[in-house]
Amino acid sequence: MPRALLLCALLLACARQTAPDKAPPAPPPAPAAVDPCAPAPVPGDSSRALARADVLLRCGDDAGALAIRFALLRRDPGSTARAYALAVLAHESGRVGDIDAAVGELPLTAGARAVYRLTRDVSAYLDARARRPEDPGKRDGPIDAAALARDVAAALAVTADDPYALSLALRFTALHDADPRERAAPICRDRADPLLARLRDREGAAVLAAACGRIAFRSADPVDGRRRFARALELAPDDHAAALAWAAAELAAGNLDEAVRLYRLASAAPSPRLRYAAFLGLGVSHARRREREPAEAAYRSALAELGLDTATPAKLPPELTFNLGILLADAADPAARAEARALLRAYVDALGADERRRLRARILLRELGD
């Protein structure tokens, strides 16, 4: 056989030996996507359960997140950390009454019960005080400061070394100090700092460090305030409430770059309430840096967190109505100026609006030809 023909025969034989008898099997189908918001049992592991609660908050399922927090407290009825977290979430979701009844049936320790009650009442009191200039009658009615002071003293009597009770007591005390350096700051130095040095509860230590960070800023000591807030976020990097409080302190101090950084950090919070506050603060910070487009984007993100838009300006929170209206009033676009007019009219008509802001809104409305 000629050499060329022999070579062809060998090549054909090799090809027949290496050729597959059949086509390779098709790849397995991709697993079906899992809906993170779908109902699921509460994980037995506490860390996974907490992560699940955060997912449900992002899904807008406050009731599901509350159920997990309640289950965790039921598992450990002596935990002041879980009592604190449940009370915070109940307050943020507006479901305090429902949760109160359920918590009342749990066999909590005196310390856990005191921290739950104190967290609930101090949170409502701080909110009411913050709203008073613009909307004094909203949701939580007036709270008796004297009665709350007695609750603070009672809670500290049964939880002397509890970081959650002490942080709430500090925030309440600082609110009523003409100068926080007189009472609140010494408590941070003489009582909170020794406790922080020996605490094993990192989240509790973060809450307490952030409380003292607020007091340091109010005491005109921003260097100490930054040190304390940085320590809080080092202990609990996901403490978005601490990031939000730090951002507000930096905004008040005029440190706008740092305020922007911290508000962005806080905007990743699972809680819609915290995200709303973060985007609102971010908008104010950008506006003060004269960055109109980022400010508007932040305000509209705040609107989205509420599930609202400017088509119904009377339904918006007054602080958002005013800030977005002021920003849009300076725009060149006729549609934006029309939107500004609607927002500013709504603010002027709002019950309990701040009078100085109301006057500024009226002046701008005149300038807009309204």
Automatic annotation (TrEMBL):
The keyword Magnesium does not apply. InterPro entries: TPR-like_helical_dom_sf. Residues 1-19 form the signal peptide. Keywords: Signal. It comes from the Bacteria. Residues 20-41 are annotated as: Disordered. Residues 22-31 have a biased composition (Pro residues). This is Tetratricopeptide repeat protein.
